[in-house]
Structure formats: C-alpha cells, structure tokens
Design goal:
With about 325 residues, the chain is an alpha/beta fold. The chain is built from 13 helices and twelve strands. It has two domains: about 130 residues, NAD(P)-binding Rossmann-like Domain (Rossmann fold, 3-Layer(aba) Sandwich); about 190 residues, NAD(P)-binding Rossmann-like Domain (Rossmann fold, 3-Layer(aba) Sandwich).
Length: about 325
C-alpha cells in the first residue's frame, strides 16, 4: 500500500524498510511533521504513518480525506494527537501500536529514578570537569522507600515489579483495573489521595484523557510529601508544568525527571543546539540542578523499534487486505459511543 510516512528520522526509515522487505508496501518518507501546512504531501496516499507529535485535528483530517487518505497508522501507543470523533465522521480507520516494548519504557523509568536519587547527572558533569567533590551529591537508599505508581498497565506493572522485587520498596498503585499479580507480589492499590500523601517517589504511567489532563497540579502537589521525587515517562500533559516549577522552587518537589513535556512538539526530536530555545517554561526547568530531562527517548531501543515497525506495517497490511488491523482504535469504546 502506498503510505506517506511523516516525522521520519534515519532510524525510522531503517527499521520500517527492514520490516517491509517481504511485504512490498510503497513507503514514502517525509522528514516534516504532519500539519495543516504539510498534509498536501499525502495527497494520493491511501495511508499515512505518523508519530506522537504529528497533528491530526479536524482540519488536517479533512484535507487528508479530500486527498484520498483512509488509514491513519500511528507508530506509537498514544493517540491523544488524533481527533477521533472527526476521524470517525470522515470515515478513517485509525490504528496504533499499543504494546511495542513495555520493557524499554519501564527500564528507562527506573534509570531516571536512580539517576535522580543518586545525582548521577550532576556527578557525570562534575567528573568531566575534574571536580571530584561529593558536596551536593548526597542521595538516599531506595530500599524500604514508598513508590507510587499511577497506572499499572504493561509499563506501570513492570515498573512496580522492579521496585518491589529489585529494590525492596513499598509500592502503592492506582488504576481503574487493579492487577491481581501485583497484589500477590505485595503491591497495594490505594486511592490517589493516599498515594500522593504516602509516596517518596511518584511515577506516572497512565494515558492522557480529559480526566488525567494536568493530573499533577497545585492541588495534588499540595497533598504530596515535601521533597517528593516525581517522574513522568507517559504523556507530557499529565503535568501542569508551571505548577511543577513553583513546587521545585518551594522544595515541595525534591527532584523531577521528565521524558515527555506538554509543549514538546517544537522541541523534541530536533537538534536545537545552535538556537535559543523560545519556550520560556521549558528553559526555566533546565535551570534547576535537580531536574533531569530526556527528549522522549524512553521507547528508543532496538527491540522497541523493531516491534513498532513490524506492528505498524501489520496494521497497514491488514487494512489493505480488508482485515481488522490488530491495533485498531475502537472510537465508540474510547469516546463512549
């Protein structure tokens, strides 16, 4: 099937071409993000393949539909960048990759926690400058600390297991569907208010929905322990960034790690090293010594990219053959009819 692939980087092209070797889809790679200005590149393509920061609101979808596109194949798990109601009304099939490699994101999350609590990011820079002082690098043991895991799907469950079995932590969880296996391992499912108040470390692994938008805000931060460690490798808009900056300044948040950011579209996946960052909120976060930010790389492992490419192309193949794509997003279930 003729497919326009947007937001392409060299690794996208490499893994998609490898997965496509025996399938024969006609893949056309475009470096720009899909926006209302660039969607004309997809004219005549029955399918578009898009990523997390591509824009699929109603105006874009209308132009895609007018150009003959009928399939939106997301090479990611999240779909908050797609206007699903508009997609349904315009006759689109929307498919995603719901579970490519939960281990990749879970392991990155644990790595961020370790880096924060042992100040590894600061120590790395010091040693490179010949500074071997330990002042300001005091950390704490994870053993017997309380870790709050918000969302225990595949990724959150792996994170919970790691802190339970690997570090001997007390793990508090919150999810609409408790995982009985985690309970057997010793995890406790508690209301969010209890999780906020009792956790030394809080890590977010829930989807971005209207009810989870700015889940971390002035009110929820007020319930947390002073000096709490906060980690987000899920969706940027789960966090009210301005509220978090105020909490960093007051000491309510003792350390913060982000792999996602609510206004990341114009920043992440780009080389801006020779430019002045225009996002003042993001630039302010970079000034804190207890903040560690990675550029949406939690998913970025060889195993994950192989799985993403294979599952994305399977969605395209299924659509072409009149089959149900394995990653089909059922709009009625997501939006409630």
């Amino acid at each position: 099937m003729k497919t326009a692939v947007f937001s392409t980087r060299s690794y996208d092209e490499c893994f998609l071409k490898a997965a496509n070797a025996k399938l024969g889809h006609e893949l056309h790679f475009f470096e720009p993000r899909l926006t209302e200005r660039t969607c004309r590149l997809a004219e005549g393509f029955p399918a578009v393949c898009v990523f997390v920061n591509d824009q699929l609101d109603r105006p874009v979808l209308e132009k895609l539909a007018a150009g003959g596109t009928r399939l939106v194949a997301l090479r990611c798990a999240g779909f908050n960048n797609v206007d699903l109601r508009a997609a349904q009304q315009l006759g689109f099939t929307v498919a995603r990759v719901p579970a490519y490699s939960p281990h990749a994101v879970a392991e990155h999350t644990v790595g961020l926690v370790l880096a924060l609590v042992r100040r590894l990011h600061k120590a790395y820079n010091r040693v490179r400058e010949g500074n071997f002082h330990l002042e300001g690098l005091l950390g704490f043991d994870l053993y017997k600390k309380t870790v709050g895991v918000v969302g225990t799907g595949k990724i959150g469950a792996l994170v919970a297991r790691a802190f339970l079995a690997g570090f001997g932590c007390r793990v508090l969880c919150q999810d609409v569907r408790p995982n009985p296996e985690l309970v057997q391992l010793g995890a406790e499912y508690v209301p969010l208010e209890t999780l906020w108040a009792a956790s030394d470390i809080i890590t977010l692994h829930c989807p971005l929905l209207p009810e989870t938008h700015h889940l971390i805000n002035e009110d929820t931060l007020r319930l947390m322990k002073d000096g709490v460690v906060l980690v987000n490798t899920s969706r940027g808009a789960l966090i009210n960034t301005r509220a978090v900056i105020r909490a960093l300044k007051s000491g309510k948040i003792g350390a913060l790690a982000l792999d996602v950011y609510e206004e990341e579209a114009d920043l992440f996946f780009e080389d801006l090293s020779n430019r002045v960052i225009q996002d003042d909120v993001f630039a302010r976060m970079l000034t804190f010594p207890n903040v560690l930010i990675t550029g949406h790389q939690a998913f970025f492992t060889q195993e994950a990219l192989e799985a993403i490419a294979a599952e994305t192309l399977e969605n395209i193949s299924a659509f072409e053959q009149g089959r149900r794509p394995p990653g089909l997003i059922e709009v009625e279930k997501v939006l409630g009819g």
